[in-house]
Design brief:
alpha+beta, 3 helices, 22% helix, elongated, Carbohydrate-binding module family 50 protein, signal, LysM1-like
């Protein structure tokens, strides 16, 4: 088992530690440590068909996010419906959807 202080340090750095292959009393295997980056959480209610997210950083506004990602305010609000009308509830460290997969793609089938 990893020491608690090491696990706490990895979490603070934005990493998750997963141990595998913990040796038993009869095993000569050494423990394996795999470090996995932790992604920022998504804003609640983000579009299920989202294909591109960006993390909210200090000072970000809906306008700056829209300009950087070449989308409109209508789109950012449609894809992130819990963002309020004034766009004052962006949560630093969370991700917002700035691009979705095609939604109305249909092919005519004859059969």
């Amino acid at each position: 088992m990893l020491p608690t202080t090491l696990l706490s340090s990895l979490t603070v750095l934005g990493l998750a530690a997963v141990t595998a292959g913990i040796p038993t009393a009869t095993s000569s295997q050494k423990p394996v440590l795999t470090v996995i980056p932790i992604e920022d959480p998504n804003m609640p209610g983000a579009a299920a068909r989202c294909r591109k997210f960006v993390s909210i950083e200090k000072g970000a506004t809906c306008i700056s996010i829209c300009n950087e990602n070449k989308i409109t305010l209508d789109k950012i609000r449609a894809w992130n419906p819990l963002i309020n009308e004034d766009c004052t509830n962006l949560w630093i460290g969370y991700r917002v959807c700035v691009g979705v997969f095609f939604q109305d793609l249909m092919w005519p089938f004859t059969g």
